[in-house]
Each structure stands twice: as structure tokens, then as C-alpha cells.
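Task 17 of the worksheet. Students: predict the tertiary structure of the chain below and write it out as C-alpha cells. Keep your answer in the requested format; marks are given for formatting as well as content.
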Amino acid sequence: MQFYRRSTNVSAEMEEMCAEGSKTTPLSAARDGAAADADHKVEAEDDARPYSMIQLFRDPELRQPLFIACALVTIQQFSGINAVRRCARFYYK
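Model answer:
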């Protein structure tokens, strides 16, 4: 961080980042109570259910993300970025 700030005094920013990091750790969820943790686990299990290919096309909530993902992959193929990434190590030798 000293390089990017062009200063050797970055202790205040580091302390701020550490304070923010301690607020969002998994341990803070455990301190809030086991009931909140159990509710979070139930929500995560509901979100993790598997979908079949037919459900991906039939469900309107899943159709748009599927279309966006397919469009991004298609654009990536037509742009040629995959070939550049694959051969990049040869270009920079």
C-alpha cells in the first residue's frame, strides 16, 4: 500500500481495513447467535438445489441469467480472446 499511496504512513488505513474485516468474519456470525446461523444454513441449502436443463429454459428467473452467460461466452469466442490467452506465454517469451 505504501507504493500506491506514495507515503510510508499508511497505518491509519490499515487499521480501518482491519476493523472492517473483523466486522464481516464468519466468527461474527457465530457471536450473533446460533439461530441466525441456522437460518443462514437453511437459506443456503434452498439456493443450492440442482436444476435440470429443461428447468433452466422453462423458469423465467433462470432464463435471463442463462441467456446472459451464453451471450458472454459467444462474444468471448468471436473476439478471439481465448486464443490470445492460450498463446500469451509464447507471445511474451
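Marker's comment: The chain is about 80% helix and 0% strand. The radius of gyration is 23 Å.
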